[in-house]
Amino acid sequence: MTLFGHRRRQLILLCTLILTLGSVSGAWAQEPTSTPLPPEPTLSTTPVVLTVGGTVTSGTAGVSVPAGLTLSLHVVRPGAQGTLPTEILKRDGPLGADNNFHFDNVAARPGDVVFATTSFQNVVQGSQLISLRNGQSTLDLPITLYALTNDPSVITLIRVQHILDYKPGGLLQVLATYDYKNTSDRLYQSNTLTAKGLPVSVSVPLPIGARAVAFNTQSIERFSLGGDVNAPIVQDTKPVLPGQTHEIVFSYQLPYAKGAPIDQDYPYNTSSIEVLIPHDIHIAILDNNFETAPNTSINPQRTYTQYVLKSPLKAGDRLVYTLGGAAQVATAPRPQPAANSNTLFFAFLAAAAVTLVVAVGFVAIRRRQDNPAEASRRRSRKRA
Q1: Phi, psi of 35, deg, nearest 5
Q2: Is the pTM of the predicted complex or chain greater than 0.90?
Q3: Residue range 116-150, pLDDT digits in tens
Q4: Which residues, 6+ apart, have CB-to-CB distance to 358 below 8 Å?
Q5: What is the rounded (10 degree) CA torsion for 23, 25, 30, 32?
Q6: Domains of the chain, CATH where assigned
Q7: Which residue, among 260, 278, 364, 378, has the nearest Cα to 321 in the 3D structure?
């Protein structure tokens, strides 16, 4: 199979997975309410003929855009309700001497999604995904390329948020949000590979005993679980771009019987950790290393206590605290966020494109082993 055919098949497969897993599972913890989205624009059915171009620049100091780079233009069309999106066009073209690229006579329709990609340092990188407007005839797709780094010191975990809820059967449901920043001018990817051979970017060691991990985006390609059954590690394969907030959202469960110890490693410098617990489940953090304050902004129909860790953590630190209280299942109403089908499709397609970047761009990188010292340390903690 040609590389073109391989990439096309992967894109369609990934879009399928994303669309089928687009809604958040009912097993997730309480989510904040949201403001309804504005009405969707009415898209014309009249085809458009585009001129698409852009400039390729380097975002890494001292690294130049190589001459002779090949650019690929992609046009993807959303399917009707319940059907797949389709890549209707892929064209390749050379980068000009002035670092510009140009595609003429690109046939498309309003609502189609257009983006450009290229391979740089064995990584497929590309432009933003643009949804075509009615009557549009030109499109600018600038691309910034970054050299690669494997140095974890460039990653800062700027914010961790855990939202707790109590479920029948003695289970704590945790909705976790992790926001990372890459402080360098290089694309970050670690030396670790997932079990499927994809390079890992950032990893999240979960508390001892965590189970039933689920993700808010399709997890089959982007996310993987490492570690072991008692000490799982969430592995993200989306590269961390310089300067942008890199967010991971997922949920997991912990056993709770009149209390629960939380024991978790933090591999990166961590600026802020907060835990939000609704009053109506009657659980609290018993340790004094958190500042506390009431919180009603996350959900006006439930009052939470917000616990904020008093001090930041250094890379490699371990955070241990205790939850206590006679837990009970809450009966408060739990409204779900409003959804917009076009907005969801576009967000999920963006995730598919990023996953395609990872899956295709790193296929030539050789397999590496996890750090044996770290694995041994976590096994020792589990036995203890």
Answers
A1: -80, 135
A2: no
A3: 999 999 888 999 999 999 989 999 999 999 999 99
A4: 198, 199, 221, 222, 237, 238, 239
A5: -10
A6: 3-34+44-148+347-361 (2.60.40.10), 152-333 (2.60.40)
A7: 260
